[in-house]
Amino acid sequence: ENGNDGDAGLATKTRPKTRKPPMYKVMLLNDDYTPMEFVVHILERFFGLNHAQAFEIMLTVHKKGLAVVGVFSFEIAETKVAQVMDFARRHQHPLQCTMEKE
Ligand code: TYC
User: Fold this and answer.
1) Which atom of ligand 1 is nearest to the CA of 62?
2) Coiled coil located at which positions (predicted)?
3) Is the pTM of this model over 0.90?
4) Which of 24, 27, 32, 69 is at a distance of 20 to 30 A from 59, taking alpha carbons?
């Protein structure tokens, strides 16, 4: 039973399958001013990375211009972006963090 025409001629329209919610990539962007140690600290603090992982991702951003730091549900991704942007602003660094649907 797929929801279509199950009961006494009444056709109903339903989706054949349930859909999983979209996931969102959270990305860090390079700039010329934010100190490398500050970026490493952010990655440890807000993304739960160990120091080696954080340093590696920071270097990828530095060299390539940006990197995906994690993939999350919409609400978690939004929170991560807000936490990073707020922390950077409070420390007066121009670091940018964005999210994009996968
Ligand atoms: N490019 C910065 C520097 O040379 C370091 C940096 C890395 C800045 C990653 C932002 O997302 C970033 N100090």
Assistant:
1) 7
2) none
3) no
4) 24
